[in-house]
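Example for reference:
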Amino acid sequence: MIKAKKSLGQNFLIDTNILNQIVNCVEIENKNILEIGPGTGNLTKYILSKKPKEFTVIERDDDLIIVLKDRFKENINIIHDDVLNIDETSIFNESVIVFGNLPYNISTEILSKWIINLKNNFWFESLVLMFQKEVADRIIASYNNSNYGRLSILANWKLEIKKICDIKPSSFSPKPKIDSSLLLFTPKKNFYKIKNPKNLEKITRVFFNNRRKMIKKPFNQIFNGDLKILKKLKIDLNLRPQNLNFETYYKLAEEYENLRG
């Protein structure tokens, strides 16, 4: 019997009701599927039953690679690597549906990597991803909410996000100490054009560096108190970072790019 490795953030999903819910939230038949961290293959089995066109999994654990090869033979393609090292655009020639019970310790890093590396052509059709509930709450938060922050702004930039369900610790083995949430991400047809996503990262990092303070200091730090930008974007410097909506941050990133030429 394979034991979950704490160092890799492993918690294997065993709840059949949740497994069914995951594979039924998108159309899988005859689609290209990528699964991140399949573990012992519990979700993999359910995905295969839906008859995907091509099915690839990414798994870094040596022991689990042996289990997956033995259990699924030639029915799946296995990439033995860390997902953070992978260029997902090189795996398929067509768009893909991604499933992932993401390791809690690197889930935000994985999502941020995918968003920052997105071009105008999306390499995925949808993302069906599981997060620690606390992280999911930050991803789906809107402004004027205490959970709203850098991750909310980045995730909502190019993606529509829908919460599918919350998942209790009893659905996993071993049981984590926290609840999880399943989120569905789909590409937006229209999104604010920012030349370099790292500029949005910088703007949000500086503004949320001290989220309880008014935005006057971070604004002056980046824009040197430029009154034209204040007037154009109708920003009140007495507000706090969580009081500015998504679009304001996207516009701030654009203004920052304009200043840098």
The beta strands are 12-13, 32-36, 54-59, 77-80, 96-101, 124-132, 159-167, 172-173, 180-187. Residues 197-260 form a domain with the Helicase, Ruva Protein; domain 3 fold (CATH 1.10.8.100). Residues 4-9 have pLDDT under 50 and may be disordered. The chain has two domains: 6-187, 197-260.
